[in-house]
Amino acid sequence: MGAALLGGLLKAGHEIGQIVCTTGSEERAGILRERHPGLRVLPKGNCEAVRGADLIVLGVKPYAVPKLVDEIAQELNESQVIISLAAALPMAVIERRVNGLQMPVLRAMPNIPVLVEEGAIALCANEFATLAHRDMVEQLFRAVGVVVFVEEDMMDAVTALSGSGPAYVYMVIEAFIAGGLKMGLSREIATRLAEQTVLGAAKHVRQSGAHPAILRDEVITPGGTTIVAIHELERHGLRSMLISAIETATKHARDRSAAFVQKLES
Ligand SMILES: NC(=O)c1ccc[n+]([C@@H]2O[C@H](COP(=O)([O-])OP(=O)(O)OC[C@H]3O[C@@H](n4cnc5c(N)ncnc54)[C@H](OP(=O)(O)O)[C@@H]3O)[C@@H](O)[C@H]2O)c1
Asked: Is the pLDDT of residue 265 over 90?
């Protein structure tokens, strides 16, 4: 995720000389240097990278964040901003480890389409983050997608909707392709039609500003094929299934986050 964000930032024109990356291993550092000639990469050099940084992005796995913050804590100051990419990790876990500093901390929930600069990124911020901090972080993430701000207690719902959401949509595309194959379309044509149908429908929703139900209704002709297919989808509970999936995933994310915090505090 960190590498995807880095790629987006560079593509959006951010200066390579203003970015310092750290990795856990020489191997990963080598990959990054090869991919981005001129990039400063410091394997295990977290304290050195934090020294003098304006903005610190924590891109390690959630379980590794507390130890990482403990490691860099002595280098932090209140003019810096911390952004955590860690799923399920409350900002309070970081706030408790910054030596009592009143630092702006933001939490980001990006999704995998940041790889193609079409991510959906939700951000939340603590009480020390000013409007200027929020704007600065929003600008950064805009390099890799669409950005929204939510309250922290909504991050589990975000995880369930847009964090995991690409997996649901991949399943829809997969099923469209299978349907096309079943009806005799070639694999290549079924794939191109399926992916473009999802892409085009999403773009139509965004550009028209209309509720999807209205757009769906516009596709229906009386006695036509679309209404027959919609009847089948309703009979199998498509919308209800997706609502339940997001509800269940939100509860799971909430439970996981609570268990994580409990484990850290025990
Ligand atoms: N992947 C997603 O779709 C997604 C979505 C939303 C949020 N996130 C969040 O993004 C974070 C990263 O996930 P990921 O999937 O990108 O993990 P990942 O592929 O394992 O990447 C983690 C990176 O952190 C480096 N690292 C590990 N320990 C380090 C240390 N002590 N100091 C400096 N660098 C260190 C690793 O380098 P080495 O390989 O050299 O150890 C690696 O480059 C997680 O907190 C996750 O919750 C991910």
From this structure: no
